[in-house]
């Protein structure tokens, strides 16, 4: 996971730790290396700038300079600022899902095709049943790909949640409203709506999901993004965030050789918390996202 970034940072972190004295010159040199490592990992430029400027400010501050091991203190600052870039400042509450509504609480899933939306619905259903003892119903509003509906049915059955069937001739909003009505009548706590994704950003897709959002008024609108997509992941996140009031992000495929760009900048670019990370193809491969733990992993 983010091995390249970790390798690149390992060298400079080692140098930092060894510095008994921090000067403006050696600090600048180390930060230049960190900056390059982040840019190479596809972290968005404004996020890199903000990060480096915050680290620089603290590096030359009293707490670091007067520390007995200034190099070590500087590594601490880098760790802290990496975590903060990924949302640590938002507090542990930020990764929690909200259920504060009259049941059923609706969770709307958004994102491009192939990023892992349907798999994530299965993972979330399992997580909500096991960790929160919720009764979960899933439904697919993807009327363009019958295979997508069948796939959702299969993952839902695998985790033992309930599935609301939809048909390709139905309209997405009608499907979602019918599922919501069914969920109310059958006392489901949560309705998760999977939606159609395209291969790229597309006006019709945005209008359709905005209409779904307006009709079912979800308490959570989660944007699912593939961490392997690097800079592209950040651009699509920005486009969806502009079109929909997202409440959080799910970062998938962090178990692959993602370069780190999306993990490190999607929170900064959208202002929305990363709530979960997908770490396997299997349906138990979902973790609550923890910025500090992630920063530790990245620094190795
Ligand atoms: P959708 O088109 O967005 O609904 O994407 P799918 O749920 O069909 O997933 C696309 C592919 O990504 C499938 O092969 C999934 O098994 C895989 N996938 C989804 N999430 C993860 C993950 O966290 N890690 C890995 N390694 N694969 C994932």
Any key phrases for this structure?
300 residues; alpha/beta; eight-stranded mixed beta sheet; 12 helices; 53% helix; 13% strand; binds guanosine-5'-diphosphate
* Mean pLDDT over all positions: 93
Instruction: Spell out the helices and strands N to C.
Output: HHHHHEHEHEHEHEHEHEEH
Largest sheet: 8 strands, mixed
| Distinct ligands, ions and cofactors found in the model | guanosine-5'-diphosphate
Return residue spans where pLDDT drops below 50 for at least 5 consecutive residues: none
Task: Output the strand order for the largest sheet.
Answer: 3-2-4-1-5-6-7-8
From the spread of the alpha carbons, the general shape counts as elongated
Please identify the structural class as seen in this structure.
Answer: alpha/beta
Q: Which value, in Å, is the CA radius of gyration? A: 21 Å
């Amino acid at each position: 996971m983010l091995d390249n970034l970790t390798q690149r940072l390992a060298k400079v972190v080692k140098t930092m730790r060894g510095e008994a004295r921090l000067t403006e010159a050696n600090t600048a040199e180390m930060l230049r290396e960190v900056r390059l490592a982040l840019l190479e990992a596809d972290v968005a430029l404004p996020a890199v700038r903000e990060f480096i400027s915050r680290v620089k400010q603290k590096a030359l501050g009293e707490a670091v300079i007067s520390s007995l091991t200034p190099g070590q203190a500087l590594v601490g600052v880098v760790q802290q600022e990496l975590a903060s870039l990924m949302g640590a400042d938002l507090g542990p509450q930020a990764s929690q899902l909200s259920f504060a509504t009259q049941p059923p609480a609706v969770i709307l899933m958004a994102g491009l095709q192939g990023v892992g939306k349907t798999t994530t619905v299965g993972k979330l259903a399992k997580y909500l049943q096991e960790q929160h003892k919720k009764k979960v119903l899933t439904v697919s509003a993807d009327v363009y790909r019958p295979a997508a509906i069948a796939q959702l049915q299969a993952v839902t059955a695998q985790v033992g949640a309930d599935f609301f069937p939809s048909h390709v001739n139905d309209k997405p909003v009608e499907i979602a409203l019918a599922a919501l009505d069914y969920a109310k009548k059958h006392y489901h706590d949560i309705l998760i709506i999977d939606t159609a994704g395209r291969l790229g950003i597309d006006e019709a897709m945005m209008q359709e999901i905005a209409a779904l959002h307006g009709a079912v008024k979800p308490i959570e609108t989660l944007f699912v993004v593939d961490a392997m997509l690097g800079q592209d992941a950040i651009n699509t996140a920005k486009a969806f965030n502009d079109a929909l009031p997202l409440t959080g992000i799910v970062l998938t495929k962090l178990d692959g050789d993602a370069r780190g760009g999306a993990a490190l900048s999607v929170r900064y670019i959208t202002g929305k918390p990363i709530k979960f990370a997908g770490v396997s193809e299997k349906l138990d491969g979902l973790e609550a996202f923890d910025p500090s733990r992630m920063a530790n992993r990245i620094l190795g």
